Amino acid sequence: MLHRNASPSSHSEPSTSSKQSNLSLERFLEIAIEPVGQTMYVWGGGWNEEDTGAGVEAVTIGVFDHWASFFEEQDALYDYQNTLYQIHDGLDCSGYVGWAIYNLMQTESGQEGYVMKSSEMAKAFADFWWGSYTPRNAVSDFKPGDIMSNEEHVYIVLGVCEDGSVLLVHASPPGVRICGTDLDQTGTSDAIVLAQQTMAEQYPKWFEKYPSVLSMFRIYIITISFDGIQIHFQTHQKYRRLMLPTL
């Protein structure tokens, strides 16, 4: 994974245009999966031309139409290293999370964005009083809505399966997708099986090209709890019914 050298722009708390009545954990996760299966990973995607903060797509309400068009143009051999800084064609990990946060906290396009280096996201969002910050060595569990970030990556937790594996959504080559962690490096886990089923059934065009759903990331954490909601599902059936609605 490449390391971003740009510094984030200044950030402030959500504007008064935010939908305060709809700042729920459920809504956050609904937004987070909107780009899944139709948005390629592009290094620099979601950032501005200066590489200092959010670009136009990351401060736009809704999924950018061009992302799906660009996905349709790609084949199974897509290599993100050939599309570096084609910032309008897709999203990178921090661009994706910044876009998701913006679409939760804002109701109008063109306001100040939330894209910054992945290493700074968890602490910055906690400083906005959106949740609590927990260093890596103090993380004891994972809950839906947790934002995990370090110097290399940032992702959003969808839930924890019975074997302890984490179901997550993130922008990681080849694109925005649902993945599962591999606890014992065997190549499978409850979360991986669930991610495979979900991507195959709900995003078949994507899954045909890009069937991999493995993720190894375990990093820093901030618990987003806009309404004080903490949801911790334990079974595959509950995840699929409540967390992963068909788009």
Automatic annotation (TrEMBL):
Organism: Faecalicoccus pleomorphus
Biased composition (Low complexity): 7-21
Disordered: annotated span: 1-21
Name of the molecule in the record: NlpC/P60 domain-containing protein
